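User: Assemble these into one structure.

Assistant: Restating your components, then the assembled model:
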Amino acid sequence: MDGYGTSMRKSLLIGIGTLAIGLAWCFWTAGSAEEGGGYGLGRTATDEEIRAWNIDVSPTGEGLPSGQGTVKQGAQVFAAKCAMCHGPTGTEGPKDRLVGGQGTLTTAKPVKTIGSYWPYATTLYDFINRAMPFNAPGSLSPDEVYSVIAWLLYQNGIVKEDAVIDARTLPLVQMPNRNGFIPDPRPDVPSR
Amino acid sequence: MPRNEKPTANGPAADYAPDRMVSRRRFLAGTVSLAGLAATTMIIPRLHAQEVKPPEDPMRVPGALPRPYGDRSPFVKSARVGGAGPGAPHGWGENAPNNFNSWTPLQDLHGIVTPSSLHFERHHNGVPLIDPARHRLLIHGLVNRPMIFSLDELERFPAVSRIAFLECSGNSHDLWLPNAPDFTVQDTHGLTSTSEWTGVKLSTLLEAVGVQRGASWMLAEGSDAAGMDRSVPLTDEVLQEAMICYGQNGEALRPEQGYPLRLFLPGYEGNINVKWLRRLKLGAAPFMTREETSKYTDLMPDGKAYQFSLVMEAKSVITSPSGRQQIHPGFHEIRGLAWSGRGRVTKAEVSVDSGRTWQLARLQEPILPKCHTRFLLPWRWNGQEAVLQSRCTDETGYVQPTRQELVKVRGTKSVFHYNAIQSWGVERDGRVRHIYA
């Protein structure tokens, strides 16, 4: 999905140019602290401020916190905090079905679940940590998130019952539908 | 897209009619008491829950006084309709607690701009209440200098405004289904709206932070309860057109549209225009969030799914006459909207005989890129059965496909990006009905 290097190099050049102009202007005005593209607006973010908001997790595992979880612990977390919306085994609903559905994507009734559809296991951490449970988002500890992920992956037949999920093991999990996605080919419908 | 994937027994058109009715209470709310006015001419008129009783002759009684924030006439009742995804009932009835979107009443609108109060909605965990004084935008990742901006600071940067459409990728999702319920154009196409958007260009802010080599994607994150996050490819198009918006139709963004700050990417599917924006993180690869992997991807018949299918392709629909309307023989102006995420609409054609013959419709100025464009065609209905259709062409030469052509390539399970030609059947009694033709 890359291939935007040219535009970014252009932006970089613009950036360097702007910086040069900005620097020259600073010297011209005897060192006044004009920053932020020459407008003097905004301020530098501190490391602490960035850490507090930098909650995303990428497929390489970047952003995963310390902590760990097991399938057994995950069963308890799921029963207490998730089952009311997703059903006791993650298949009953009423909200999104999370378990099963493998082999259904080409059928008349595709069932899109974590096991049948999600390409990256790391996405589970990013999403559950920020958005679940629906009625109390952001309330789970890292251990709870890791453990509920372990249980969901186990229920989908992706990890073994004794699996321990943490920042090292989660990015290594191979999802069944990892190669199920293609870059947008549109326009794909022939014109008359 | 759907959080609630529980199938409903009654199907899409279930409990449809009761929610058409605008409640009496709503009709009464906002009515100014004329009696109260007479007694309190020096104070700001208050709202009273009292029946609207217009005077016999409005020329013989003094009218209402100016007021701080206007409302429409109490006789105007056009309203959004709520929904909860494919197959779920439409309306505000018992299903209201499950609703996560609302449709714009396209059949009631004039021109191209959608009133902010009628702009369609799609939320992923409700509308947050945000104090603008405390709201911040953080830009970090592959930048030379990570920065934080307050709302006041963002409003001081050079401003840009642009009139453009915003369409949910799931607009018309029910039209993939094999049956054609008795829908209005609001039900079939109401997840698109047009506004004048005002803000600062993304490129202005990126110059401020200094983009590092290798930064080709940007994570945009909202401060709602879903922490909505999407990866944006930093293409030339995005770098030239993307805006960080604080204004909508001349005033601050509505809460449902991201107050106090949203990302706006003209022509791209609704959900990537992240609302309640709090963070932009530049990176070398897409972040593969839940929304761009398991949700807003388009499943094809071979089991593969289109990913980062961002552009909204050219689409048009006749808004009048349209579904569930009743017409009478004689003159009608066929009116509709056409739009394309790839640029300007160059042509809108109308057929009244199910696509056998086509007539060129008039395009109403302004004709703007990536914006609703109004088309119009005079028509005299002779009382015979008719099938009304519109198809548009955009500046890239792309022609809106028929439903048959679209389904032939994509099957019926992709949920998103349905843009086929819409058919309205006119029955002999003048009843207009959503059909597949």
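The longest strand of chain A covers residues 68-70.
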